[in-house]
Amino acid sequence: MPARVLIVDDHPLTREALAALLRSHDFDLAGVAADGEEAVVAARTTQPDVVLLDLAMPGVDGLAALPRLREAAPACEVVVLTASGTEENLLAAIRGGAAGYLLKTESPERIATFLDGVVHGEAALSGPVARRLLDEVRAGRRGSGVPDRIAAVLSAREVEVLLLLDEHHGTDEIAQRLFISEHTVRSHVKSLLRKLGVSSRREALEQLAIARG
Predict the structure, then answer these.
(1) Which residues, at least 6 apart from 11, have a Cβ–Cβ distance to it below 8 Å?
(2) How distant is the alpha carbon of residue 47 from its chain centre?
(3) Beta strands in 54-180 (DSSP E)
(4) Mind listing the domains of the chain with CATH numbers?
(5) How far apart are CA 87 and CA 182, in angstroms?
(6) DSSP code at position 35
(7) pTM for the complete prediction?
(8) Half-sphere exposure of 91 (CA within 13 A, CB side)
(9) Residue 81 in 3-state DSSP?
(10) Which has the closest alpha carbon to 22: 117, 120, 109, 105?
(11) pLDDT tens digit string along 75-92?
């Protein structure tokens, strides 16, 4: 039997394009929804094999809906299809039970291939997303020296930047070690300072030292 797919996206043209894509690749359209709340109701009613889920939607967004979708239709797999490839959204989606994370820049053929793979038990990750996930895993290994109460509020990459700051590396050195731009390093520093509630790198390192006891 063809796999049944529920499309969740707030843009009518995107829903129509995805529905046409499914029909042309021998999937069945289980239904469509324009936001997370509609998606949960539709999933409970139709029990699809796969939910193709956008993240940025009005009302209940994709990340908020994801665990509810898994509860409403326990046998279905959820594949995120979004324009956002940020680390925070990627990790939140995976932790929420997503079987895939695809960017809307993927070609229709690739999306269909990924969906078929998910139906057969495979994961689905766009190339740039897979690289970010790999970077997060690598950064997480390095972050084992950060106390839990600090690591809990930072992304794995921010943990790695914080540890390199603690080793007295400057922005340029951190960029070279992590193979990222200096601009990206400064963005990570700004983000970790905000999350820790401090205004300077020195204060962030003081918090790290206090947390370590």
Answers:
(1) 54
(2) 24
(3) 77-82, 100-103, 124-125
(4) 4-125 (3.40.50.2300), 132-212 (1.10.10.10)
(5) 18
(6) S
(7) 0.66
(8) 15
(9) strand
(10) 109
(11) 999 999 999 877 778 888
138 confidence band (pLDDT: 50, 70, 90) = low
pLDDT tens profile 9-62: 999 999 999 999 999 999 999 999 999 999 999 999 999 999 999 999 999 999
Which among 192, 178, 183, 195 is positioned nearest to 135, based on CA atoms? 178
Q: Does the structure show a pLDDT above 60 at 140?
A: no
- CB-facing half-sphere around the CA of 200: CA atoms within 13 A: 3
Q: What are phi and psi of 195, to 5 degrees?
A: -65, -30
> Which residues are within 8 A (CB) of 166 and not within 5 positions of it... i.e. 6 or more apart?
205, 208
Q: Cβ distance 42 to 6 under 8 Å?
A: yes
pLDDT value at 203 more than 90: yes
* Cα→Cα distances 58→30, 73, 125, 196, 197, Å: 22, 22, 25, 29, 29
